[in-house]
Amino acid sequence: MAQRSKSSKAWLHEHVNDHYVHMAKKDGYRARAAYKLLEINEKDKIIKPGTVLADLGSAPGSWSQVAAKLAGNTGKVFALDILPMEPIAGVDFIQGDFRESTVLTEFEQLLAGRPLDLVICDMAPNMAGNAVIDQTRSIYLCELALDFAAEHLKPGGTFLVKVFQGSGFQEFQAAMKSVFAAVATRKPEASRNRSNEIYLLGRNKR
């Protein structure tokens, strides 16, 4: 039998022994990503009881689960994804493609003119395996999310978005700085070290 390569062994070890995967199962979260948002919120207190927020690219729903729990009965979570998502108490969900104006219009109707305190976005494109194409698609989704946040956040509102470092990252960070008074980077422990994902946190929408 052929010996497994070191990288193959490392991959298997990471997935079988992933601390956050086991925690997610135990705690009832749909994905390990829940702990990224929990860790950021522990530091930055972006979701509190009464927070009204939108979760863009929400499926399978772990961020919406966290947000609904933290925002409580006095808050509200609106979620959007191209993929289906099982219902979550306290979350209004629309399934559709974020890039289509008809879907955004439907989402805006769901908001019914309510200004948002917070927009969170953990979206990633379907990866093609081509680094240049994947990065371009990723930045495009981030730009769409920023446009949505700029339009729907109340003055002083907050935006948290996952960005992959690479081509277009600095330009996107600069675009965020034109909308928000402060922009910080966050790399939660639950984010795998080998991943080039990072989170940008925009505070105090102008």
TrEMBL record:
<comment type="similarity">
    <text>Belongs to the class I-like SAM-binding methyltransferase superfamily. RNA methyltransferase RlmE family.</text>
</comment>
<dbReference type="GO" id="GO:0032259">
    <property type="term" value="P:methylation"/>
</dbReference>
<feature type="active site" description="Proton acceptor">
    <location>
        <position position="162"/>
    </location>
</feature>
<protein>
    <recommendedName>
        <fullName>Ribosomal RNA large subunit methyltransferase E</fullName>
        <ecNumber>2.1.1.166</ecNumber>
    </recommendedName>
</protein>
<comment type="function">
    <text>Specifically methylates the uridine in position 2552 of 23S rRNA at the 2'-O position of the ribose in the fully assembled 50S ribosomal subunit.</text>
</comment>
<feature type="binding site">
    <location>
        <position position="97"/>
    </location>
    <ligand>
        <name>S-adenosyl-L-methionine</name>
    </ligand>
</feature>
<keyword id="KW-0808">Transferase</keyword>
<feature type="binding site">
    <location>
        <position position="81"/>
    </location>
    <ligand>
        <name>S-adenosyl-L-methionine</name>
    </ligand>
</feature>
<feature type="binding site">
    <location>
        <position position="63"/>
    </location>
    <ligand>
        <name>S-adenosyl-L-methionine</name>
    </ligand>
</feature>
<dbReference type="InterPro" id="IPR029063">
    <property type="entry name" value="SAM-dependent_MTases_sf"/>
</dbReference>
<keyword id="KW-0963">Cytoplasm</keyword>
<feature type="binding site">
    <location>
        <position position="122"/>
    </location>
    <ligand>
        <name>S-adenosyl-L-methionine</name>
    </ligand>
</feature>
<dbReference type="GO" id="GO:0008168">
    <property type="term" value="F:methyltransferase activity"/>
</dbReference>
<dbReference type="Pfam" id="PF01728">
    <property type="entry name" value="FtsJ"/>
</dbReference>
<feature type="domain" description="Ribosomal RNA methyltransferase FtsJ">
    <location>
        <begin position="29"/>
        <end position="205"/>
    </location>
</feature>
<feature type="binding site">
    <location>
        <position position="61"/>
    </location>
    <ligand>
        <name>S-adenosyl-L-methionine</name>
    </ligand>
</feature>
<keyword id="KW-0949">S-adenosyl-L-methionine</keyword>
<dbReference type="InterPro" id="IPR050082">
    <property type="entry name" value="RNA_methyltr_RlmE"/>
</dbReference>
<dbReference type="InterPro" id="IPR015507">
    <property type="entry name" value="rRNA-MeTfrase_E"/>
</dbReference>
<keyword id="KW-0489">Methyltransferase</keyword>
<dbReference type="InterPro" id="IPR002877">
    <property type="entry name" value="RNA_MeTrfase_FtsJ_dom"/>
</dbReference>
<keyword id="KW-0698">rRNA processing</keyword>
